[in-house]
Amino acid sequence: MDVIDSRPYDLLIGESWRAGAEGRTFDTFNPATAQVLARVHEASAADVDAAVQAAHAAYETHWRRTTPAHRGKLLRRLAELFERDREKLAWIETLNVGKPITHSLDSLKGMPASLEYFAGIIPALRGETIPVGNVDVLNFTIREPLGVCALIMPWNYPMTLTVNKLGPALAAGNTVILKPSEVTPLSSMALARLFEEAGFPPGVINVVNGPGATVGERLVTHPLVSRVSFTGGTVTGARIQAAAAADVKRVTLELGGKSPLIVFEDAPLDKAVAVAAGDLIKNSGQVCIACTRLLVQESVREEFLGLLQQRLDAVRIGAPTDPATEMGPLVSAAQKQRVEKYVGLAAEEGALPARYGQMKLEADTARGYFVPPTLLLNSHARMQSAQDEIFGPVQSLIGFRDEAEALRIANDTRYGLAAVLYTRDGGRALRMARGLQSGSVAINTGLRTSFDAPFGGYKQSGIGKERGLEAIYENTQLKNVKYDTTI
Ligand code: NAD
């Protein structure tokens, strides 16, 4: 499928598709071949300012006064267009991120429904009347949009994460500036072309590309931006929070994780193994909620490991465009280097790295950024390799003796994004669910986020919630009004 433009991708500012004011472009790569895939125009500070001005003007002149029904109609139309172009968007995601095409198609399947969901919950944006001390005073609340929202994206799931941020921001009546990751901007650019066709007026959605240190930082510190919604690494998130604090912007941060998969001896081991293997293989482990610490009760540790090794030995690694491929490359040379560095560190710390899979590379993929599934055997909880987010196909295997030790190790991390546990003991499952310091907990099932349930991290995994009803509230502010009815 011919889905990539040969000319550089433009910025979208107000009604115009255009090059950056300073004429710079940057390359984006196909990680499976290490070849340049496309060129993209880079926004200058003046372009970011122009995008913010366009979003602010659209908000002030008309968008803030649109009816819920109108915003819902536009989001539903966008959902239809997404469905029409879903296959094309999936191919772009595969070529730019390196995801196997079967995975790209699968992960985009739910996106039209996500847009429809946010269109459907707009009526939840209601205020209430509140009886206050003076019976002559009518007291009521109004839920209002925030204004211009900056949406700053990572590279691992460019399309799904963008849709799940855009939906609630627009549904709530805000205008947006989207800043895709400079590593994987192409699927967002293809999505941006659907906005106008869906009927969104110029300025409601703007797209600026370029590095975080310039384009991202300019957005975060711009006085007309009211809210920053960021998904990315914890260090970047902390930096954004500090920058946004200067003028007290609303900030939502979806950050890193080091999620545990906790397997008790009464667990259906085949199911727990499927989750462990799936999290290692899916998007080559570059998933914020992936379980990267396998905590397995000592009595079943050997059996669990045997089954897991059997599955990992069979993983088909290769060209992401091949429908038979289960695991593609990492996103970039830098990410591959980071992962290999951590595997080396784990060995120095006394863990035993073991590698699996059937890697099948051809002439064109020989230089791609492939890393095989890797288990760090003999790990323990305080090793740096078991504490830091590696963001690749690497899992630490750690044993535990009893429930108390499992909980202690699970919580022994600065992250708190997600946790999975397998046990047939209902009481223990619920005790663990209460005790885990984690924004999401899955019991006897793998973690799969859904657009209609709240998602967000505890501890250094983030602030605020995205998805579900909470996402639309996060995009609004609440005004209290008092009216003296005697006058
Ligand atoms: P990153 O933090 O390097 O970059 C994310 C975005 O921030 C990019 O668009 C980048 O240009 C921008 N940026 C960088 N510095 C900036 C600055 N100073 N000001 C403003 N913007 C700036 O993250 P990444 O490497 O693209 O993504 C991987 C990380 O994302 C992992 O840590 C992963 O766990 C996390 N992630 C979290 C979730 C979640 O929902 N919690 C989901 C996906 C990925």
TrEMBL record:
Any GO molecular function: betaine-aldehyde dehydrogenase (NAD+) activity
Domain Aldehyde dehydrogenase: 17-481
Keyword Oxidoreductase part of the UniProt annotation: yes
Pfam family, one: Aldedh
The keyword Oxidoreductase is assigned to this record: yes
This protein's UniProt keywords: Oxidoreductase
Residues at the active site: 254
EC number: 1.2.1.8
Name of the top EC class for this enzyme: oxidoreductase
SUPFAM superfamilies attached to this UniProt entry: ALDH-like (SSF53720)
Family statement: Belongs to the aldehyde dehydrogenase family.
Name of the protein in question: NAD/NADP-dependent betaine aldehyde dehydrogenase
Organism expressing this protein natively: Achromobacter insolitus
